[in-house]
Design brief:
The complex is a heterodimer of chains A (121) and B (384).
Chain A (H helix, E strand, L loop, with lengths): L5 E5 L5 E2 L17 E5 L4 E9 L11 E9 L2 E7 L12 E7 L8 E6 L7
Antiparallel strand pairs in A: 1-2, 1-3, 4-5, 4-7, 5-6, 7-8
Chain B lengths: L6 H4 L2 E12 L6 H16 L8 E5 L7 H6 L8 E5 L5 H14 L5 E8 L23 H16 L3 H15 L13 H6 L2 E3 L2 E2 L8 E10 H6 L8 E10 L9 H17 L8 E3 L5 H11 L7 H6 L10 E2 L4 H4 L7 H14 L12 E8 L3 E9 L1
Parallel strand pairs in B: 2-3, 2-4, 9-10, 9-11
Antiparallel strand pairs in B: 1-7, 1-8, 4-7, 5-6, 8-12, 11-12
Helix pairs in contact in B: 4-13, 6-10, 9-10
Classes of the chains: A mainly beta (121), B alpha/beta (384).
Chain lengths: 121, 384
C-alpha cells in the first residue's frame, strides 16, 4: 500500500473514483486503461460526522468517529477521523490523511486528522 | 430484467394465498421447517394443493446454493420449475416480481413466491471485490444512515423525537401483529433511551437480526376461474418495477432518488398517484429511512415526513398507513422473507383480514424494498 492517498482520474469523463485500483470509472464506466492514478489533493474537508458506539465492522474499535470527507469534487467517502470525540471537530474543517501501518498480522489503514493536530501516540 | 409496464396491465395477476412463519431471533430451527410452514400456510389460505403450483421462486440472501429445492422436495417432487433469487434485502421482493412476470407472460399460471432466511450464514460480495475501502464502515448501512440522519437534522431541522416517533409507531403496529419479531409497544422515552448504536440512532430505531419465512401464491385470471378461487379474497398486482441507483446530478442522497424513481415508475404503471395509496410497506431498516422514503414515494411533500408521522397520518386509521405490519423495525427484517412479508401484510389488509391492526377501507397499496442501498423493487397492489 502506497503511503500516498491515491484516486483514479478518468481521462474520458474527468470524474474521480476511489480507490485508485477500481476496475472501471464509477461515473462513465471507462476501463482501467483509461484511468490514471493521481494523489488526492490535501487537505480534504470534513462534510459530516457521527460517533459509532457499537462494533459494527471488523477492526473497528468503538467508540469511533466516522466522517464523510470530500476526496475530490463529487467524490465523498466515509473515513475514520482520528480524534478522541466529536468535540474536536467542526464541519468544513481541513483534515489530512495519515497512513497507519498495521501490526504484524493486520493491514494498515488511513485515518484523517485535523490539520496541525499532533500525531497520536 | 427491464420494467414491464404493459404485462401486468394486459394479463391480470392475483395474489390468492399468503403464509408466514413468525419472524424471530436466531434459533436452532432449520430453515426448511421455517419455509415449509409458510408455504403450507399459503397453500391452505389459497385452497390449493402443491401439485397445482407450476413454478416456485425462492428469495434468500444467506442460505446458500439450492436452498429452494432442498426445502421444497419435502412437499413432493412434482417437476415444477424452481428458481432461487438473491438480491440482498430485496431478495423476496425480487422473487415476487419474477413470479408475477412468469404469470403475466403466460409462462405459468400458478406460481409460488417465497422467502426464507436465517441470520449468520450470509457472505457479502462487497467484501470480496478486491478493493480496500477507506473506512471499515464503508459497507455498513447503519453508519451510512446515521450520517444521513445527522445531515437531515442539521440541514432540515429534523429532531431526535421526529425519528423516534417512527419507531414508536412501528413497534406499536408490530405489537398487534402475531408474525412480528417484536411484540411490545414502546414509548418515545423508551426509544430515545435505548442503547446508542451510531450517531443519533438508538437500538430501538434499528431493525433486528433474525429469521423467518413468508410465502405468497400468484395466479392468472384464467387460473382464478379454472380453479374456482374466491375473487373477493384475491388481490391484484397492478405494477412491478425494479431499478438500481444512479449517481445523482445534485447533492441529494442517491438512495432517496432511487426510491423516488422506482416508486414513481410503479405508480405510473398502475395508473395511480401516491396520494391514492391507502397503505405503504417500505424499507424502514432505520427510522430515518421511513421519513425520507415516505416523502420520496410522494405520500407527503418533501420535508413533511416527520410532521406526517407526528400528526398520526401514517398510523393505521390515518391518511395512509405506513408499515402497518410494524415494518422492518418492528416486524423484523430476516432478508429473504421481508419483501414477501410486505406483500402478505398488504394482501391481508386489502382483504380486510388484518385483525387487530386493520386499516379501514384499504384499496390500494405499495410495497417497496431496497437491497444493499443500491437496488429497489416496487409493487402496487389493489383490492380485486
Amino acid at each position: 500500500m502506497s503511503n500516498t492517498l491515491e484516486l483514479a482520474c478518468c481521462t474520458v469523463c474527468g470524474g474521480t473514483s476511489f480507490p485508485a485500483q477500481v476496475p472501471g470509472c464509477r461515473h462513465c464506466g471507462a476501463p482501467p486503461a483509461q484511468l490514471r492514478t493521481q494523489a488526492c489533493a490535501t487537505p480534504v474537508h470534513l462534510l459530516n460526522f457521527v460517533t459509532v458506539h457499537a462494533p459494527l465492522a471488523p477492526g473497528l474499535k468503538v467508540p469511533a468517529v466516522i466522517g464523510e470527507v470530500a476526496l475530490a469534487p463529487g467524490l465523498v467517502e466515509e473515513a475514520r477521523i482520528d480524534v478522541a470525540d466529536e468535540s474536536a471537530l467542526t464541519l468544513g474543517m481541513a483534515l489530512t490523511p495519515v497512513w497507519q501501518p498495521g501490526a504484524e498480522d493486520t493491514a494498515g489503514n488511513w485515518v484523517f486528522r485535523p490539520l496541525n493536530a499532533g500525531v497520536a501516540a | 430484467m427491464t420494467n414491464s409496464p404493459s404485462l401486468l396491465r394486459e394479463r391480470a395477476v392475483y395474489v390468492v394465498g399468503i403464509g408466514l412463519h413468525p419472524y424471530g431471533f436466531p434459533s436452532e430451527t432449520p430453515y426448511v421447517q421455517l419455509g415449509l410452514h409458510a408455504v403450507r400456510e399459503a397453500l391452505a389460505d389459497a385452497g390449493l394443493q402443491w401439485p397445482q403450483v407450476r413454478s416456485a421462486v425462492v428469495g434468500t440472501a444467506a442460505l446458500g446454493m439450492a436452498a429452494g429445492r432442498v426445502m421444497l422436495r419435502h412437499l413432493g417432487s412434482t417437476g415444477l420449475e424452481v428458481m432461487q433469487v438473491e438480491n440482498a434485502s430485496a431478495s423476496g421482493s425480487t422473487a415476487f416480481r419474477i413470479a408475477c412476470l412468469q404469470v403475466a407472460s403466460g409462462e405459468h399460471d400458478v406460481v409460488l413466491a417465497m422467502g426464507v432466511d436465517k441470520f449468520g450464514d450470509g457472505r457479502r460480495a462487497v467484501l470480496k471485490d478486491g478493493l480496500v475501502p477507506l473506512s471499515p464502515t464503508s459497507n455498513v448501512p447503519l453508519v451510512k444512515f446515521a450520517l444521513l440522519a445527522r445531515r437531515c437534522m442539521r440541514e432540515y431541522g429534523l429532531t431526535l423525537e421526529d425519528m423516534a416517533r417512527v419507531a414508536v409507531k412501528n413497534h406499536g403496529n408490530a405489537s398487534r401483529n402475531p408474525f412480528a419479531q417484536f411484540r411490545k409497544p414502546r414509548t418515545l422515552e423508551q426509544v430515545l433511551a435505548s442503547a446508542p448504536v451510531a450517531g443519533d440512532l438508538t437500538a430501538m430505531q434499528c431493525c433486528p437480526r433474525g429469521e423467518g419465512a413468508a410465502a405468497v401464491i400468484v395466479v392468472s385470471e384464467e387460473a382464478l376461474k379454472r380453479l374456482g378461487l374466491p375473487r373477493e379474497r384475491a388481490v391484484r398486482v397492478l405494477a412491478s418495477s425494479a431499478s438500481s441507483e444512479m449517481l445523482p446530478p445534485d447533492d441529494a442522497p442517491a438512495l432517496v432518488n432511487l426510491v423516488r424513481k422506482s416508486s414513481a415508475a410503479a405508480l405510473t404503471q398502475a395508473g395511480i398517484g401516491a396520494k391514492d395509496l391507502d397503505i405503504v410497506e417500505l424499507h424502514d431498516a432505520f427510522t430515518i429511512e421511513e421519513l425520507l422514503y415516505t416523502e420520496a414515494v410522494g405520500v407527503c411533500e418533501t420535508g413533511e415526513g416527520a410532521a406526517y408521522v407526528a400528526r398520526g397520518d401514517a398510523d393505521i386509521g390515518g391518511r395512509c398507513a405506513i408499515n402497518p405490519s410494524g415494518g422492518l423495525i418492528g416486524m423484523g427484517h430476516p432478508l429473504g422473507p421481508t419483501g414477501i412479508g410486505q406483500v402478505a401484510e398488504i394482501t391481508r389488509q386489502l382483504r380486510g383480514e388484518a385483525e387487530g391492526r386493520q386499516h379501514p377501507n384499504a384499496r390500494l397499496a405499495l410495497a417497496h424494498m431496497i437491497g444493499l442501498g443500491s437496488v429497489a423493487v416496487a409493487h402496487v397492489l389493489a383490492r380485486a
